[in-house]
Design a protein that fits this description.
single chain; 382 residues; alpha/beta; TIM Barrel; 8-stranded parallel beta sheet; two-stranded antiparallel sheet; 12 strands; globular; binds flavin mononucleotide; binds the ligand CCCCCCC(=O)C(=O)O; EC 1.1.3.15; flavoprotein
Length: 382
């Protein structure tokens, strides 16, 4: 199917399903445990309603935003995800090209199958951040920080919500086109092809530091000149701790519902995290972002930028770099149109007063109060 006929992310998801092996699809789409958090990430967005302001001059709109000092054309970037080669032979290099062509950022996972240098070379003008794993050997972490800095990555992302890796290499089928290969992780001490799938799990157990703590975060903060983003923050306490340690940005995330199941949807905790951070760090969100209205809601509730995980992989599976570009273009266009329809000409016009939680209406109904929109809309001349 020509991907130019696909006009929504839901259509991309369907098309990607058809193009992808069963193993790859189950890996990409799998939620954690029963999938409660995964489902809620989507449902929760629908529980927020938009109260538009009309008859404002929105003829010309500007979706650009600056994150960690870098200007992006729109506030939607790509979250770190592993093993892109399962979806397309050009792997993370294609994803990076897709993101760069749209002038947005991509976070490269340590679990990428193209090395961080190769991905940098594939999209030299792109905005790239690097997700660094915690290793038992700090020397290895230091060397990776230096490599990322040299290769032009402009921020380091640490993931707080994954104390253990539960991916089972015993489930990797022998029918994969090539063995999985993680050059950022074992390039240094394992020659290509030296480890079979079954030995990988043991290698990772010995190398990667599980159950990392704030002390590890602090070490990274002190050992790089790049800004540090802490991903996987859901509690006010952790957000405040991140600020105390001088973290530059927190990414409100539940790992797309793939880690702790039963936790909250990210959009539901966003407001409290934004308040807790109090402008001392930038705040981003990921988890279930699938439409331009989702983006607008997250921005209205205080996120400076949102990230997508699976949707970028659907684009990659369907059409490589171009597919990633198309997915981003759809979201950008939807955001642009939603901004027009809600009276916002620029990102800073997207204010909390645009969004009301559905419980507001239920509450007013219960108390027999008039339901006339959002009381919080600030007074303005118009
Ligand atoms: C296939 C897959 C692999 C992922 N790999 C990583 C990873 O290596 N590091 C990480 O911090 N998060 C990883 N994540 C989580 C994403 O960064 C992100 O938090 C999540 O996908 C956002 O939710 P969404 O898929 O609903 O957009 C992964 C997610 C998926 C679906
Ligand atoms: C093939 C190794 C996968 C490591 C874990 C990546 C990840 O964070 C995920 O959610 O999956």
């Amino acid at each position: 199917m020509a991907t130019t006929t696909l006009t929504t992310l839901a259509e991309f998801e369907k098309a990607a399903r058809q193009k992808t092996s069963e193993f790859a699809w189950s890996y990409v789409s799998r939620p954690g445990k029963d999938g409660q958090t995964h489902t809620d990430n989507r449902q929760a967005f629908k529980r927020y309603r938009l109260i538009p302001r009309n008859l404002r001059d929105v003829y010309i709109r500007d979706t650009s935003v600056t994150i960690l000092g870098t200007k992006l054309d729109f506030p939607i970037a790509i979250a770190p995800t592993a093993t892109h080669r399962l979806l397309h032979p050009d792997a993370e290099s294609a994803t990076a090209r897709g993101a760069a062509s749209m002038n947005t950022a991509m976070v490269l996972s340590s679990w990428s199958e193209h090395s961080l240098e190769k991905v940098a070379a594939a999209a030299p003008r792109g905005v790239r951040w690097f997700y660094l794993l915690f290793y038992r050997d700090r020397g290895r972490m230091k060397r990776l920080l230096v490599r990322a800095e040299r290769a032009g990555y402009t921020a380091i992302v640490l993931t707080a919500d994954q104390p253990f890796f539960t991916f089972s290499f015993r489930k990797v089928p022998s029918t994969l086109p090539m063995p999985l290969w993680f050059p950022n992780i074992y390039l240094e001490d394992v020659p290509p092809g030296a480890l079979g799938s079954l030995e990988l799990a043991d290698y990772f157990k010995k190398t990667i530091k599980e159950a990392a703590t704030w002390e590890d975060v602090e070490w990274v903060r002190k050992n790089t000149r790049l800004p540090v983003v802490l991903k996987g923050i859901l509690s006010v306490e952790d957000a405040k701790m991140a600020v105390r340690l001088g973290i530059d940005a927190v990414l409100v995330s539940n790992h797309g519902g793939r880690q702790l199941d039963g936790g909250p949807a990210t959009i539901d905790v966003l407001t409290n995290i934004v308040r807790a951070v109090g402008g001392e760090a930038e705040v981003y969100l990921d988890g279930g972002v699938r439409t331009g209205t989702d983006v607008l809601k997250a921005l209205a509730l205080g996120a400076r930028c949102v990230f997508i995980g699976r949707p970028a992989l659907w684009g990659l599976a369907c059409n490589g770099a171009e597919g990633v570009q198309q997915v981003l273009q759809i979201l950008k266009d939807e955001l642009n149109l939603t901004m027009a329809r809600s009276g916002c000409a620029k990102i800073s016009d997207i204010q909390p007063s645009l969004v009301v939680h559905e419980s507001y209406y239920l509450y007013r109904q219960m108390l027999h109060l008039p339901r006339n929109g959002n009381n919080m809309i600030p007074k303005s001349k118009y």
